[in-house]
Amino acid sequence: MKISTKWLAQYVNLPETPVELAQRESVTGIEVDEIIQPAAGLKKLVVGQITKLTAHPNSDHLNICQVDVGTDEPLQIICGAPNVAAGQKVIVALPGARIANNQKIKRSKMRGEESQGMICSLQEIGFDETVVPEEFKNGIYVFPDEVTVSLGDDVYGYLGMDDTILDFDITPNRADTLGMRGTAWEVAAMYDEQPHFQHPQLTEAAQPAQDVLKVNVADQQLIPIYRTRVVKNVQVKPSPLWLQIHLWNNGIRPINNIVDITNYIMLDYGQPLHAFDYDKLAGSQINVRLAKPQEAFQGLNGQDYELTDQDIVIADEQQAVALGGIMGGNFTKISDTTHTVVLEAAYFDPVHVRKTAQRHNLRTEASIRHEKGLDLSATPEALDMAAQLLTQLGEGTVLKDQIIGAQCPLELPKIKITTARINHVLGTQITQAEVIAIFKRLGFKVTSQGEQLVVEVPLRRWDISLDADLIEEVVRIYGFDKLPSTLPVEAQTPGHWEPQQQFYKAAQATMRALGYDEAISYALLNQTQAQAFTDAETTAVQLAWPMTQDHEFLRQNLVSGLLNDLVYNIARKQTDLALFEQGRVFQKVHAQDARPQEIEMIAGVKTGQVAQSNWQQASRMIDFYDLKGDVEALLSSFNKQADISFVATDQLAQLHPGQSAWIQVDQQIVGFLGKLHPHYAHQLNLPATFVFQLNLEKIWQLPKRSQIDHPAPKYPAVTRDIAIEVAKHVTNAAVEQVIQTNAGPYLTQIQLFDVYAGENIAAGEKSLAYRLTFQDPQATLTDTVVNQHLAAIQTALTAQLAAKIR
Amino acid sequence: MDLKQTLNELRQQGLEQIKAAANLEELNQIRIKYLGKKGPINQALRQMKTVTAEQRPQIGALANTVRDDLQTAITQTKDQLNQKQLAVQLAQETIDVTLPGRPRALGTAHVITQVMDDIEHLFISLGYQVIPGPEVEEDHYNFEMMNLPKDHPARDMQDTFYITNEILLRTQTSPMQARVMEQYDFSQGPLKMISPGKVYRRDTDDATHSHQFNQIEGLVIDQHITMADLKGTLELVARHVFGQERQIRLRPSYFPFTEPSVEVDVSCFACGGQGCRICKYTGWIEVLGAGMVHPNVLVNCGIDPQVYGGFAFGLGPDRFAMLKYGINDIRELYANDVRFLEQFQGE
C-alpha cells in the first residue's frame, strides 16, 4: 500500500519528517519498503502556456510552439505530441532541465528549427504508465482549466509531486492499514496523537431508493454485508485534479469522476466499492448469489470468464454483472452516458473471494482487501461518503436511504488481560497506567476491574482476538528497544546432538580427512537421476506440480546429485575431483505409503588423478582400489563389530558390470561402489569416475566393537610369506577364506603384497603373494608350530583352489 | 736394547701412527697391531722373565702406561674420525627443504555445514537438544498445527511443493515445534531444542531464491520464558556469528505461529551501522524471524497457554553464510564448484 504523507497529514499531526516517520513505523508497526519522492531528481520543470502554434515546415507531425513560461520572451519549443494545441497550459522542461531517468534537456535544433526545451508528457516526468489518465497516455499533459496555475511556477506542487509516498509492506494481519484512515490510526498511536476525520453529511432526495431497486442476497453467511445507494442525474466527467492526484499517488489511474470516487473511498476507508450503471441493469432487482456452473461473465477489463458454483456474483435479472468483491462487469460499467448510478459497499466471504481470484487469476485492489479483511463497521459510512462525493463532484441526487441486502450484527470483541500477564510474557515491568495509555493511543476502549483490564477492540483491528494479540500491541508501542535482554533462567538442561547425528558428523569428518570436499546438492532431480543406482523395489516420490522436470522427483540416491556436481566442475576445467555428500534419500516401501522413508546416506565420487605428477612421482589415474581403500577406511572408522565384504555385482545399470560391488556387512547389503558404466559416463560427458554410497542408518544399527583393553602382546609375532599360482578367476576373497579357515588359532593378519600375471606365469593363471602373521598371546611361537600350520594352509590351497605353491 | 726403551719407542711410534690414521679401518689395524694379543706390548711383557726382579714392577707399570696411553689416543682419534665421518654423511644427506611436500588432499566442509555446526554448537552449549525432523511433511504439521488452517491467506506467503493434498515438502522447520511439543513431557523440565534441516519452497532459482535451503528452528517452552529472554538469546547468536560488537533490533512482523512476532535485524557488520551498500544504507541487516509461541499452537499441541509459554525462532544458515562471507548468489551454495567450496577452510 502506497501511503501519501500529504494525505496522511490531513488526518493526523505528523511531528516528524516523512523519512523519520518511515523509520519509526518500520520498528513500531509496518515495514516501509520504499520512500518515494516523485519530484526527486527533477529540475526546471515549470508551467507554461502555448500562446501560438504553427506547423513545422520540414515535418508532417511536428509543431512549433511559442510557450509563455512567465518570462519576458516566450520560448520556442518544437513539439510532436498529437494532442498539442494553442492555449493549453502544459509542463515545460526548460533548457538545463532534468526529466525522468536523469535525462537532461538542452537547447537543440529539430529539422532546422530551434527548440528551447520540451513540452512533457506525464511519463516523461516520471509517472508510471499505469496511472496516466487515458486522454494523456499518448501525448503531453494539459492542466485542466479549473485549476489556477501561475506560468513559470514549478509543476511539482500542482501535480502532487511534492508529496512523499511511503510503500508499506503490509503483513497479512495488518489489513487495517490498507486504507488511509486505518493508517492514520496506526500513525496516531505511534506518535500519541489524536486522528481527526471528516464524516459524511448527506443530503438525500425524498424518493426512496427502494422504489427503483430491490436487492436480494441469497446467502447471508457468504455475503454478511451488502448495502447499496442509488444516485440519479449524475454527470460523468473527469475528476478534479486533487482527486486525480490522490489516486495516481496511490498507484491508481484516474478514469472518470464516478469510478474515481469509488477508488478514492476504497483508498480512504479500505472498503472497496463498485458503481453500476443503473440503466444498463436488466430489471430493477439485484441478486447476490453463487454463480451457476459455467455461467458466463465479462469483466470490465473486457475478458470473458467461465464461472463455477463457488464464485459469488452480483446479477441482474438476466446475467452476472459483477464478480463479488473482485471486479465489475462490462455490461453495466460506467460510461459517458451514465445517468443513474448504483453504488455498492459489501463484505464478501474472504475465502470465497480469495479462491475466486485465484481460480480466475484475477487479483484486484478490491479482492486484495476482501481477502485480507475489512473494517466491518465502516461499510455504511464509506457508502454515504461516496454518495456525498457524487453529489459534489457529479451533481448527482442521492435517493433516500441505503438499500440493505444484508447486514450481519457487529459486536466488538472484549478481551481480558492483566498487566501482570503482559509483564510475565514480555519480561518487563510496565505499569498498569502505561498499559492503559497504550491501549488508548490505539483507540481501544479499556475498563478496569481491579487488576483485570477489559479491552474493547474496534472492528478495524479484526486481527486482535487473544491476549497474546494485545501483548503484541503493547510491546510494539512500548518499544522493542526498551525490552530487556536476558537469557532463560530455568532448570539446567543438558544440550546435545543425538548419538546418531554425531555418528553422521563423524562420517563426514572422516570423508574430509580422506580428501573429499563436502557437497550439498539438490534433493529434487529428474526421474532418471532420482531413480539411478537403485535396484530396490521402491516407489519414487513425485511432486504433484513440479516447476521443471529437472526437479520433479525426490532423490533415491545421493550419487546422481554428486555426478551433477562433477559435470559442473568438469565443464569449468576442474579435473581431479573428490566430492562427498551426507544427506537423505527418499523412498516409499509400498506405493500406497503416505510418506516415504527418509534414509541418511553418505556417498562419494572421485575422478581424475590420484595425485598430480610432481617432482617426485608420476601422476596416476584413480582406480577402483583407490575408492575401495577410502570406503574401507570409512568403514573401519565406524568401529563396528561386523564382517565386511565386497561382493562383485552387475546389478546396477549405471555401473561397470566388471568393476562394481555390493558392500555387505554381516551378509546384508549396506551400499555399493564401482566405476561408472562407460556408457553412462559418456552420456554425462564424464571421464572415468568411481562412486560409492553407504546406508548410514543400517551401519549405525550394527553393534559397536567392544572397547575393552587387550594388553599389547608380550611374545614376538612370526611372519611367513606364501606365494601361490592360481587360475585367474579365483578371487582374493576365496584365497583368504581358505587361508583363514585352515590357519589354526594363531593367524592374526593376512596381507596380500603382490599380484602378478605375465612372464613366468602360465597363461590364464596369476600369482598371489601373502604375508601371514602368526602370534600366540601366551607364548613364543616355535618354527615347528608355525610350519605345521603353514603346511596345512598350503595343502588346503592346493586341494580347494588347485593352487600351485611357488 | 733394554725393554724399557723398547716400550718407550713403541709408544712413540704408536702415537704417531694413531695420529696419522686416516680412517676408522686404519685405526682399527693400528689398534690390533699394537694392542692385540700378539702385539708388541704383549710380546714385550712376555720377555719379563729376562728382567731383574727389582725392575719388573717398573717395567710392568711402564707397559701398562704405554698400553693405556695408546688406548686413550685411539679412543680420542676414533671420536674425531667418527665426527668427521658424520659430518660428511650429514653434508651428503642435506636436502632442499623448500621443495614441496608430497601432497595430501584434505577435504573441506561445505560452508553451510560450517555455519550450521557453529550455531548448533552454540545452542548445545546453552543446553539445547538438537532434534532433526522429516523433510517430507504432513500438511497437518507444516501448516495446520502451526495455526495456518487450510484457507489461511498467509499460506500464500510460502509456495509449497505438494506431493499429495496432505503431503508436502516442508516449507519451514517450524513443524518440528508441533512434533516435539505434542510429545513432550514437561515433568522432565523445560523444553529447549533446535531443529536444523533442509526446507523447500516453490521458488524459481535465482541469485536470491533457491527452491531448497536450510533452516534452524529454535524453541524454548517453560513456565517463565519471556520475550526479553528471546531478545537476549538472539543477541547471543548474532554476536556469536557476526561479531561481539553487533547490536540487534527487533521489528514487529507477522507469523501465524508466533504472537508477538518480530523480524530481527543485526547492526551491519560491514559498516558498523553507518550505512553502506550491504545494508542498503539502513545500518541494519535482517537475519531472522522470531516470536512468542502463539497460544493456538500451544493449544493444538495440548499445552495450556496460561501455564506454559515460550519463544521460537527460525534462522537461515544459507543467508547467514551469504552475509558472513559475502556470497552474492545463493546458487553458488548448491553448484558445488570445488574452487568455491575449498575457499572456506573453517575458522
Automatic annotation (TrEMBL), chain A:
<feature type="binding site">
    <location>
        <position position="472"/>
    </location>
    <ligand>
        <name>Mg(2+)</name>
    </ligand>
</feature>
<keyword id="KW-0067">ATP-binding</keyword>
<dbReference type="GO" id="GO:0140096">
    <property type="term" value="F:catalytic activity, acting on a protein"/>
</dbReference>
<keyword id="KW-0694">RNA-binding</keyword>
<keyword id="KW-0030">Aminoacyl-tRNA synthetase</keyword>
<keyword id="KW-0820">tRNA-binding</keyword>
<feature type="binding site">
    <location>
        <position position="469"/>
    </location>
    <ligand>
        <name>Mg(2+)</name>
    </ligand>
</feature>
<keyword id="KW-0547">Nucleotide-binding</keyword>
<dbReference type="Pfam" id="PF17759">
    <property type="entry name" value="tRNA_synthFbeta"/>
</dbReference>
<feature type="domain" description="FDX-ACB">
    <location>
        <begin position="713"/>
        <end position="806"/>
    </location>
</feature>
<keyword id="KW-0479">Metal-binding</keyword>
<dbReference type="GO" id="GO:0005524">
    <property type="term" value="F:ATP binding"/>
</dbReference>
<dbReference type="Pfam" id="PF01588">
    <property type="entry name" value="tRNA_bind"/>
</dbReference>
<dbReference type="InterPro" id="IPR005146">
    <property type="entry name" value="B3/B4_tRNA-bd"/>
</dbReference>
<comment type="similarity">
    <text>Belongs to the phenylalanyl-tRNA synthetase beta subunit family. Type 1 subfamily.</text>
</comment>
<comment type="subunit">
    <text>Tetramer of two alpha and two beta subunits.</text>
</comment>
<dbReference type="Pfam" id="PF03484">
    <property type="entry name" value="B5"/>
</dbReference>
<dbReference type="Pfam" id="PF03483">
    <property type="entry name" value="B3_4"/>
</dbReference>
<dbReference type="InterPro" id="IPR045060">
    <property type="entry name" value="Phe-tRNA-ligase_IIc_bsu"/>
</dbReference>
<dbReference type="InterPro" id="IPR045864">
    <property type="entry name" value="aa-tRNA-synth_II/BPL/LPL"/>
</dbReference>
<feature type="domain" description="B5">
    <location>
        <begin position="410"/>
        <end position="485"/>
    </location>
</feature>
<dbReference type="InterPro" id="IPR036690">
    <property type="entry name" value="Fdx_antiC-bd_sf"/>
</dbReference>
Automatic annotation (TrEMBL), chain B:
<dbReference type="InterPro" id="IPR045864">
    <property type="entry name" value="aa-tRNA-synth_II/BPL/LPL"/>
</dbReference>
<keyword id="KW-0547">Nucleotide-binding</keyword>
<keyword id="KW-0067">ATP-binding</keyword>
<dbReference type="InterPro" id="IPR004188">
    <property type="entry name" value="Phe-tRNA_ligase_II_N"/>
</dbReference>
<dbReference type="GO" id="GO:0000287">
    <property type="term" value="F:magnesium ion binding"/>
</dbReference>
<keyword id="KW-0648">Protein biosynthesis</keyword>
<dbReference type="GO" id="GO:0005737">
    <property type="term" value="C:cytoplasm"/>
</dbReference>
<comment type="subunit">
    <text>Tetramer of two alpha and two beta subunits.</text>
</comment>
<dbReference type="InterPro" id="IPR006195">
    <property type="entry name" value="aa-tRNA-synth_II"/>
</dbReference>
<dbReference type="GO" id="GO:0140096">
    <property type="term" value="F:catalytic activity, acting on a protein"/>
</dbReference>
<keyword id="KW-0436">Ligase</keyword>
<dbReference type="Pfam" id="PF02912">
    <property type="entry name" value="Phe_tRNA-synt_N"/>
</dbReference>
<dbReference type="GO" id="GO:0000049">
    <property type="term" value="F:tRNA binding"/>
</dbReference>
<keyword id="KW-0030">Aminoacyl-tRNA synthetase</keyword>
<protein>
    <recommendedName>
        <fullName>Phenylalanine--tRNA ligase alpha subunit</fullName>
        <ecNumber>6.1.1.20</ecNumber>
    </recommendedName>
</protein>
<dbReference type="InterPro" id="IPR002319">
    <property type="entry name" value="Phenylalanyl-tRNA_Synthase"/>
</dbReference>
<dbReference type="GO" id="GO:0016740">
    <property type="term" value="F:transferase activity"/>
</dbReference>
<dbReference type="GO" id="GO:0005524">
    <property type="term" value="F:ATP binding"/>
</dbReference>
<dbReference type="InterPro" id="IPR022911">
    <property type="entry name" value="Phe_tRNA_ligase_alpha1_bac"/>
</dbReference>
<keyword id="KW-0479">Metal-binding</keyword>
<keyword id="KW-0963">Cytoplasm</keyword>
<feature type="binding site">
    <location>
        <position position="259"/>
    </location>
    <ligand>
        <name>Mg(2+)</name>
    </ligand>
</feature>
